Amino acid sequence: MRKKSQGPDSVAVSGVGDLLCNFARCCRPVPPEPIVGYITQGRGVSIHRQDCGNFLGLNQRNPERTLEISWGASSDTSAYPVDLSVHAFDRSGLIRDITAVLADESANVTDMKSHTDKKSLQVVMELSIEIRDLPTLSTVIAKLEQISNVVSVRRKA
Known about the structure:
elongated; 37% strand; alpha+beta; 4-stranded antiparallel β-sheet
């Protein structure tokens, strides 16, 4: 399994030396989305999407903890975690078709949960994947939406 790069090649923190940086699990930023840093107590800098609701609340309470940051040059091996929710009408081969799209786009599946409502024949899948960048994520979502019986694909934020 590939690990996301946490080194200086992934994120450049402007005006600050070496700090422990962690990607926020609430919004899971992916390059080149606009990002911002928030200095936590004891855990270094938490990196959020600029439009993250959690960050906006933290920033309102403690604006002095906000850091301006930007994406640095990333390597080809960088992988960023993203959570997706897929809603579809259940059918034989649905999971195979979904995982084939993910494999074709080199998206690594780190977690997958599926629940089927027998009465409505609808399935809800919660996927955690690792991808290279935002264009790859857009392609993955578009291709998943084209699969037969898939109703919607949403990025969880």
